[in-house]
Amino acid sequence: MRELTDVGATQVLEIGGAGTLTQSIEAVAHGGQIALVGNLAPGEGMDVHHFFRRAATLRSISVGSRSALERMTEAIARSGLWPVIDRVFPFEQAPEAVTHFKSGTYVGKAVISH
């Protein structure tokens, strides 16, 4: 990222854990933010000195437990809630779906089906 932009990414979404946290620190711009989803898996620790030199912010995002997800899914199913589907695209039309999404003219979700 730093090679492409000369400054790095202002926002990094870190989902790989200990195996990729060092790469995220390398990619983040000075003063940028790394959002860490879930818990760090066992592995190498992060280079705190390198992280501090970036003057970045590390923000953790908890994803909750499996049992909490199951309870939420059951509650949604019982409630009868369904997402609003704006349009369904066959897989072969994925580029058109992206164009549609970028247009901002939709209401609800744009779906790519297989």
Layout of helices and strands:
Layout: H1 2-5, E1 9-14, H2 18-27, E2 28-37, H3 48-54, E3 57-61, H4 66-79, E4 85-90, H5 94-103, E5 109-113
Parallel strand pairs: 1-2, 2-3, 4-5
**Classification by helices and strands:** alpha/beta
Low-confidence runs of at least 5 consecutive residues = none
The percent range for helix content is 25-40%
The number of helical elements comes to: 5
- What number of domains? 2
H and E string: HEHEHEHEHE
Radius of gyration: 19 Å
Organism: Streptomyces evansiae
Pfam families: ADH_zinc_N_2
InterPro entries: NAD(P)-bd_dom_sf, Zinc_ADH-like
Protein name: Zinc-binding dehydrogenase
Structural account:
With 114 residues, the protein is of the alpha/beta class. The protein has two domains: 2-61, 3-Layer(aba) Sandwich (Rossmann fold); 83-114, no CATH class. The chain is built from five helices and five strands; from the N terminus they run αβαβαβαβαβ. The protein has helices spanning 2-5, 18-27, 48-54, 66-79, 94-103, and strands at residues 9-14, 28-37, 57-61, 85-90, 109-113. A three-stranded parallel β-sheet has the order 1-2-3, covered by helices on one side. A two-stranded parallel sheet has the order 4-5. The longest helix is centred in the middle third of the chain and has 14 residues, at 66-79. It is flat and about 50 Å long. The two termini are 32 Å apart. The model has no long low-confidence stretch (mean pLDDT 86).
